[in-house]
Specification:
The structure is a homodimer. By secondary structure, the first copy, chain A, is mainly α. The first copy, chain A, is built from eleven helices and no strands.
Amino acid sequence: MASAKQQSGVRKQLVSNEILERAAALFAERGFAATNLQDVADALDMSRTALYHYIGGKDELLATLVHGLTDDTAESLERLAADQSLDPLTKMTKALHGMVLARANNPARIRLLLGSEGSLKEPLATEFREARRRSLDGMSRIVEEGVRAGAFRPVESHVAAFALFGMCNWVAWWYRPDRDGRQTPEMIADALVEIGMKGLCADSHRAASDGNSVQSALARLREDLAFLERATGVLQPSTGE
Amino acid sequence: MASAKQQSGVRKQLVSNEILERAAALFAERGFAATNLQDVADALDMSRTALYHYIGGKDELLATLVHGLTDDTAESLERLAADQSLDPLTKMTKALHGMVLARANNPARIRLLLGSEGSLKEPLATEFREARRRSLDGMSRIVEEGVRAGAFRPVESHVAAFALFGMCNWVAWWYRPDRDGRQTPEMIADALVEIGMKGLCADSHRAASDGNSVQSALARLREDLAFLERATGVLQPSTGE
């Protein structure tokens, strides 16, 4: 059983997360300068004093918002890019899946960050740019590894990385768990992973989840050929098989 | 030769376009409320009086910014969706190409719109939402037509439409014509169209530009099969051909 201390830690983290998401929504809606901590406390139906139990102040709140998701994304992509135990298709599948889930679960934070990039003060502005540069670098390395392995088409790695970031980041602008209840974040992640992977993959790698051996590619081709021949009535001479 | 009146009309449009893009950049950076027309005039190195030759006021400027690109996108997607002379692959290729070009050429406008959606006043807020709904509807119809025709995989049309919007809209956040001089908007559009189309297409439609007949699909499959058999040394019994 979890100790009282552990439970309190979990509770504090859940509350902190809720504070961050609500604060991000308010900042994005009204602007950072026009929002004070009393507004954040009101939106959370808690007192300003109680709010100070979780956060140090408005500037610290913004710093936490800027660092949280961007650092997480950068670290996760760098770790995947460097992982020698995974093939590039698995790396990319994990990268896209993780990014979509984070954006579906924290949409206000992503919208705030990308809407207010131009108005961030130093040193936050530099730190934010640096985290985004690390993310781009990690994602580009995964693309390049896939191209070298013949799994991905010979795409320009930065353009492909930005195409995938766009697809994933956009989730924060359209997906609402409460409104789109039929589709869970997991379902959205699976659908976007499939579109992204097919968009990158060389033709012989039709899906990330398929086997990648030459043998399985051959088997798929034979199946398709047989299907098309039946469907069209175009018959091959007997092969004696 | 163009008449003086035509030249004046062209010049006025070019200047208007430059005013809109600069104003959008300022609004996005400082916020709409904190930016006045003198700031816009200063950024353009023109007088406030000269600026009034082109625009009616700050609110009209914002209305023009909100309507311009969103209405253009909505109308273009609705027109493509309804065009009975084009097949769905051509429709989607044109839709993606046009969206990427518009975003590469007017990045500040797109960033402003999508960063400030929550702070738009009525009736602009409703008009903006309505234009986005029409865009989603047009794009979803093109996806659905492609799925029915067997050209696209059986994707959920709204999710696929948002994936493509994200890929195209994101261009406004990363592409800078001055910084990325090696890659023209046309090159970016071509690269993203290819990723998007491959992401949607059923396996037998490997590329939008390929023929779509069953015969050409068969021909491609036979080629691949022959290539793989040679590459792997897996030989089929002689077919007598």
